[in-house]
Amino acid sequence: MKTKSTIFLLLLAALGAAVLLGALPALAWQSADCQGCHSESEMVGAELTINPEVFATTLHAEMGCPSCHMASDTHPDGEPVEVIGCADCHSDAAEQYAAGIHADFAACSDCHDPHSARGAAAVSGYAMNQMCAGCHAPGSMAESHARWLPQAGVHLEAVPCISCHTGSEEVVITWYVTDREKPYGDFTPASYETLAAAAKGSGVPRIIDADGNGRISIAELGTFNTAREYRDLHLVGMMTPEKVSHDFAILDNRWDCTYCHASGPDALQTSFVAFPEADGTLRRFEVEKGAVLDALNGTPDFYMMGATRNPVMNWLGGAILAGGLVMPLGHGFFRLLTMKNRKH
Predict the structure, then answer these.
(1) pTM over 0.90
(2) What does the alpha-carbon distance between residue 127 and residue 123 come to, in Å, rounded to a whole number?
(3) Contact 241, 170 (CB under 8 A)
(4) Structural domain spans, the chain
């Protein structure tokens, strides 16, 4: 009995070892192993090339390549790799997207590259619109919106498509530094290299955040706006959502101008300046509340009709109106005083 039991245990151990040893190569695959080949286009081709520096800045990098790609131990010899679908992790987004108008025309990968995908706060509003521009040409979109939307070009630049065409929530103003000479029109956020050169080694955020405390005051904005060394740099604001939704649709309430152009909406009290980092991500700095509403000292290159308020501008506007009334009222008053004399 002991001999049979011993033989059985030995066979069982041998079987377990064989299974374990067979599984070890598959379990041993790590992201570094994958990137050893997939970072070289000469080895895998341009379509399968991954930039490891960009991938390292994504949320997917924390999980690692094997979390989505089930590689076998013989993969380098040509065996296919199983790819996990986006919906396996992003079920809520997939459910929203499936109910929208885009579901029959584009898959997740048509808009999102999983090897460079980042959260909404790390992506510029400009980059968000670039995703849409892959199918929706900006020129034709400006033309179609102009049929009902005044200043359509300005709107399409100041508002990411998803702010109006999805149920995305918590809209805030995000500022991007541009190296354009004109504050309006087509723009591209300035690159890290451009701003690093302007900062002269002090760090990109220091061109505005002069005291380096990680927050930007209205006074610091005013200094940046008037600094001669930054005269070719401008802040361009966009209304970006904090919570992104994938339920693409044409929403009725976005046709109402007051959705954005209400007097002093809460969204305009919160703003950030997004600075590019060397790795391609964005780092946001919170701006003092009220900066968006201060058109003179805060953000002179941004004005939202019906929302931007400035005490000095209000006083000047009142003075202009009062001055315009001086002549007709004064003329009428003196005619009234001299009415008897004019009768004779």
Answers:
(1) no
(2) 6
(3) yes
(4) 27-84, 118-313
